[in-house]
Amino acid sequence: MGARTSHQRVAVVGAGLAGLMAARTLQQSRDVRVTVFEKSRAPGGRAATRRDGARTFDHGAQYFTHRDARLADDMVAWREAGVIAPWNARVAARDNGTWRAANDAETRWVAVPGMRSLGEHLAQGVDVRYADTVSALRADAERWWLHTSDAQEHGPFDHVLLAMPAPQSHTLLAAHAPDFLSHVTATAMQPCIAALVELAAAPAVSWDAAFVNDDAVLAWVARNASKPSRGTAECWVLHARADWSVAQLEAEPASLVAPMLDAFNQLLDARVDVVHAVAHRWRYAIPAPVAADAPLAHYDAASALGAAGDWCAGGRVEGALLSGRALAEQLLASLVRR
C-alpha cells in the first residue's frame, strides 16, 4: 500500500464485541476516523439477545468471566453504569448420568437487561452501518475500498480491520494475502444450534443452568429468567453439542426443535409444557483452542489489513474484547513507527 495521509480512515468489518472494542480504542486517537460495517441489524455479534414481547432469550453467549487485569477498569465502569451484573446462578453438571454442582468458583457476568446490551453500550458514539454486508475488498494504489452486497462501494479507507469469524475473514482476505493469512486459514470454527423455549411453568429442578456432558444432543441448558433483569417469563435456552450441530447444520430450523426438546425432557425426567419454541443456527460459534502464547490479534502494516475476534482467544467473551483492543493498539503502534 502507498503512503498515508496524517488523517487515517479505518473501516472495521463486524460490530461484535471485538469490532466495537477496536473501534472505541481507535477513536481515542484524534487522528483516526472509524466506520464500522455490520451485516446484522444490531450490535454484539454472538453476545446476542432475542426479544419477543415478554420473552427474552440470550441465545448466543450465555455469560462471561473476568480473568485478565487489562479489562479491570472496563469491568468497573460497566458495572457502575449498570451495563453488567453478576449472575448468581445455581449451575450444575451431568456426567455419566450423575448430577453434581459445577466445580468452579468464578463469578459469571451478564449484560443487562440482555447480553446484547454490552454491544449496544460499546456502540454508543461509534459510526456503525447496520444491515451492510461487506462482500469483497478492493485495493487501489494507496487505499482500500469495500464492496457490499447491495452493489455499493465504500471508501477510501487507509486501513481495514476484520472482526469476524475466521472463515468469513478468510473469504475477504484470501485474494490479498496479508502476512497473517495462515493463522486465519488454520482456525476452524464449529457451529452451535440453539433452541429458544418458553415453558408454561418452571420445571422441578434445583439448578438454573447445567453443563450436559453425557448427552448425544444437548451440551448446555439455562433458565434465562434466572439472570438479572430478564423478566418473569419461563424462557430457556438450549445449546446443542458441536457434533450434533454439524450433522444438523443444513436442516430446516423448524425440524431441529423437536429433537432438542426430546433431549430436554429426558434431561429433566419429565415432559415440559411448551408455549413457544424456535431454533437458531450459529454457523461459526466454537473456535478451535489456541496456544497460551498465541497473538490476540493480527495486523499487517504492509497491507494495512488486520483481523481479530474471539477465535484469537479461545472463544471467550473476554477474549473477544481483548482481541479487538489489541488489534487497534497494533494499528496505532504502526502509525507511530512510520
In short:
By secondary structure, the chain is α/β, with parallel strands linked by helices. The protein is 25% helix and 31% strand.
Termini, distance in Å? Answer: 13 Å
**How much helix is in the residues?**
10-25%
Shape: globular
Summed up, the domain count is 2
The strand order across the widest sheet is 7-6-15-16-17-14-18
Q: β content, as a range? A: 25-35%
Spatial extent as radius of gyration = 21 Å
Largest sheet: 7 strands, mixed
| Mean pLDDT level | 95
Number of helices: 8
- Name of the CATH first level of the largest domain: Alpha Beta
CATH topology of the largest domain: Polyamine Oxidase, Chain A, domain 2
Structural class comes to alpha/beta
Unreliable segments of 5+ consecutive residues: none
- CATH-level-2 architecture of the largest domain: Alpha-Beta Complex
How many distinct beta strands? 20
Order of helices and strands: EHEEEHEEEEHEEEEEHHEEEEHHEEEH
Overview of the molecule:
With 338 residues, the protein is an alpha/beta fold. It folds into 2 domains: 1-41 and 130-188 and 290-338, FAD/NAD(P)-binding domain (3-Layer(bba) Sandwich); 47-116 and 189-287, Polyamine Oxidase, Chain A, domain 2. It contains 8 helices and 20 strands. It has helices at 17-26, 72-80, 116-123, 166-173, 181-185, 242-248, 253-268, 317-337; strands spanning 8-13, 32-37, 50-52, 55-57, 84-86, 91-95, 98-101, 109-111, 128-129, 134-139, 144-148, 153-157, 159-163, 189-199, 209-212, 218-223, 235-240, 274-287, 298-300, 305-308. It has a 7-stranded mixed β-sheet, with helices on one face. It has a 6-stranded mixed β-sheet with strand order 9-2-1-13-20-19. A 3-stranded antiparallel β-sheet has the order 10-11-12. Strand 1, helix 1 and strand 2 form a beta-alpha-beta unit. Helix 1 (17-26) packs parallel to helix 3 and helix 1 (17-26) runs parallel beside helix 8 (317-337). The longest helix has 21 residues, at 317-337. It is globular and about 65 Å long. The mean pLDDT is 95.
